[in-house]
Amino acid sequence: MRHDKEKKLLQGLLLPGLILFLTSFFACSAYAQTPNGAIPEAPQPQNLPQLHDPSADPVTVRSTPKRILEDQAAIWTSPARLNDGNAVGPALLVLATAGLITTDHDVMSKHFLDTSLNNHAITASNGLLGGFVAAPVIIYGVGHIHQDDHATETGILGGEAMVDSLAVDEVLKLVSLRERPQLDGARGKFFQTSVGTNSSFPSTHCMVAWSSAAVIASEYNGPLTKLAAYGLATGVSVTRVVGRQHFPSDVLVGSAVGWMIGRYVEHHHRRAD
């Protein structure tokens, strides 16, 4: 009985903290899109290139590890930059995530049952994810062949965003330890050590797909490109739920954080226009 009370207390403290971290990065990454790339009321790191700064290091494959370390530092310290001026976005995402968590069980147990459609949805989500992973590589290759700096930059930043997303995703999975919908009647309990590294929260597929889509849609911001990139990313999100691989809240957080990371990477590091 005492162990159960301690676990409930731990859940009550860690889960809100986890959501707060995710949403604080949403706020800070949104404000990072100002012309000089700085977050209001927060000092700009001296070693972080400014948006369109001609003196900044060029975006190359060799310089990618350094930028990824800078990205991770900015991501994990983002809660310290949350303030009254950028709290609306976090509040909305907290409410949306909390609301979905309370309805996850009913949604999965009543509307997304085990059928032959599940396997088709899983196949579709894997195929779409493969496309998002391949797209930056292809864009980089085409740019390299044609000496197109814009294309090579897009490919490099797309890959960088996906690596950043995977790093964040793995940490969040180790913290949340949520059961998959196939277990325990789709109750989706958090902090279950038995799930190991196979935590459901958040969705890795969504995180990677939306980070790649955000970079591509931002670098090539025409309406058709945005429609294609975000439309296919939405397809990944939907098929992960239909395939009973994730709960709606897993998909919401994975998609939102992936998009945030993609936008952050693109806005902080792009140089070519």
Secondary structure tally, helices: 8
Give the helix/strand class.
mainly alpha
- Rg, nearest Å: 19 Å
Largest sheet: none
- What's the count of strands? 0
Q: For the record, what CATH class applies?
A: Mainly Alpha
The CATH topology is what? Answer: Vanadium-containing Chloroperoxidase, domain 1
- The ordered H/E elements are HHHHHHHH
CATH architecture assignment name: Up-down Bundle
Provide a short characterization of the protein structure:
This protein has 273 residues and is mainly α. It contains eight helices and no strands. Helix 1 crosses helix 3 and helix 6 (204-219) packs parallel to helix 8.
Detailed description of the structure:
The structure is a single chain. This protein has 273 residues and is mainly alpha-helical. It has a single domain, classed as Vanadium-containing Chloroperoxidase, domain 1, CATH 1.20.144. Helices cover 67% and strands 0% of the residues. The chain contains eight helices and no strands. α6 runs antiparallel to α7 (223-242). The protein is globular, with a radius of gyration of 19 Å.
Secondary structure topology:
Elements: H1 2-31, H2 64-76, H3 88-110, H4 116-146, H5 149-176, H6 204-219, H7 223-242, H8 248-269
Helix pairs in contact: 1-3, 1-8, 2-5, 3-8, 4-5, 4-6, 4-7, 5-6, 5-8, 6-7, 6-8, 7-8
